[in-house]
Amino acid sequence: MVQKFHFEDKEYVFGDLSDSAKSNITIIQFINTRLQELNNMQALLQRSKSSYLNSLKKEMLAAKAGFLLGEEWEKE
Fold first, then answer.
1. pTM higher than 0.85, yes or no?
2. Nearest to 64 by CA among 74, 72, 56
3. Model confidence over 38-73: pLDDT tens digits?
4. Please, which residues have CB within 8 angstroms of residue 56's CB and are 6 or more apart in sequence?
5. Is the CB of residue 4 less than 8 Å from the CB of residue 13?
6. CA-to-CA distance for 41 and 61, rounded, in angstroms?
7. Alpha-carbon distance 3 to 25, whole Å?
8. What is the DSSP string of 15-34?
9. What digits encode the pLDDT tens for the residues 8-18?
10. Where are the alpha helices (DSSP H) in the chain?
11. What is the DSSP secondary structure assignment for residue 14, as one 8-state letter?
């Protein structure tokens, strides 16, 4: 099967490219994959940060009120 790709609104056959062009495409593919991984990591870290901020907010409100809201206490 012939590998084709589009670049600037034109279609190219991968096998017809120079070794340098093939190398550049491979590097660009790696970069795109890495950027997606980093975007996913950023989203995960942002969600974690929000969770920790919510926990902090609850703790600060609990300290002000004198008890934890929504927490179950274990009876000894």
1. no
2. 56
3. 999 999 999 999 999 999 998 888 888 776 656 555
4. none
5. yes
6. 30
7. 12
8. GGS-HHHHHHHHHHHHHHHH
9. 999 999 899 99
10. 19-65
11. G
